[in-house]
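Holo prediction — magnesium ion.
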Amino acid sequence: MFDANEKSLKKVTLLGATGSIGDASCSLLRLHKDQYEVHGLAAATNAHKMYDLICEFQPKRVALFDEHAAKELKDILNNGQSALASKVEVLSGEQGVIELSGDGQADMVIGAIVGAAGLKPLLAAIKTGCRICLANKEALVMSGQLFFDMAKRYGAQVLPVDSEHSAIFQCLPASEQLKMGSCDLAAVGVREILLTGSGGPFRDCQLSELDKVTPAMAINHPVWSMGPKISVDSATMMNKALEYIEARYLFNASKEQVKVIIHPQSVIHSMVSYVDGAIMAQIGQPDMKTPIALAMSYPQRMTAGVEALDFTKISALTFREPQKDRYPCLFLGMEASLCGQAMTTALNAANEVAVASFLNESLPFVGIAKVVDHVLNSISGSSAYELEEILAIDAQARTLAQNFVASFKS
Ligand code: NAD
Ligand code: MG
């Protein structure tokens, strides 16, 4: 069990170490070498970046999902500083990532793998009873009830890294912060959670221009610098749909207790509205190091290398309601959330296939929502709980999505 008051160095395993959240986490680990040591690092394919991270952080174990990349890493290690090669164990494949994540040697696991690939490693980490710093929202969207039932059973503390969920967490009373997955929002006077989103790069364009959106245009997010998948999700607002589902699981919220609002400046990271008319907002620079730092150091605070916001430089804070014709994915996701675990799992899988197809230019931008809609209409049954059921629906939804993409005519 994670003990925040324990004075010795905290051991960290970072899943998704070579990505955007991985980079932000590494800068915090670099800043706080007196508090954290790296036990393990996992990523998909980038052997050279992993080698650089090994040189810098000297982890005991690393894992690369891609077998060829793991072999390449071993070759680089053997040809480089020989002392390092004997100090680090290199694991490979899906099993290697799961083995590292679940080895029970880390005080905390930062879950920053993108997509469904992060689910099994995170469940393995939960079984060790460590702290889970959760960026990988897709894992929660796929498995919410199981995820929190397991966290409870094994004593794993789940802390949100997603900036909106970190904001909501910070706007809740301390009693609820310790109850992720089983909050009682009504009992502490919460009227509703106001989940904010920038609206992405196409919030102001003509709807007819959405037909011409290219991957390069979609990845160019106006505020946040992120990996390609979540950047496309932000442009369609599927990211906000996933976050709506994530918020419902994390804060045990009913559909009426979460409302999505577009806030283009992304200064307010989300809010909690109380029954007496008070609204608490968490405000700061749009920099993921802030929420990652809180998840790592909670209940303390630590420096994150992030400047405080200068209010005199902000000209306006604006808000608007999201429109269905511009953001069909947002509404598909919110509807799926009402239909149970099978639908949110299918939604996530269909979206992953659609986004990958858009990024490799085999699907137009406006096709993403059509693929997701098609898959949700084709899946039968609404319940799923055990991992095997979840993975079966995920696979079924991917096949349906791939077939639809192959036959897609706009
Ligand atoms: P990214 O594409 O930049 O990085 C993804 C990381 O996952 C990489 O290190 C990659 O190697 C690794 N990975 C992919 N598949 C893997 C596999 N099968 N096994 C092991 N590692 C694998 O993505 P990102 O932007 O860092 O996002 C990561 C997660 O954090 C996503 O779930 C995203 O929704 C969430 N998130 C990101 C941000 C952000 O600002 N980037 C904000 C909030 C939440
Ligand atoms: Mg977010």
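READOUT: The pocket of nicotinamide-adenine-dinucleotide (ligand 1) is lined by residues 16-22, 42-44, 65, 97, 112-114, 117, 135-138, 162, 224, 226-227, 229-230, 288 (CB under 6 Å).
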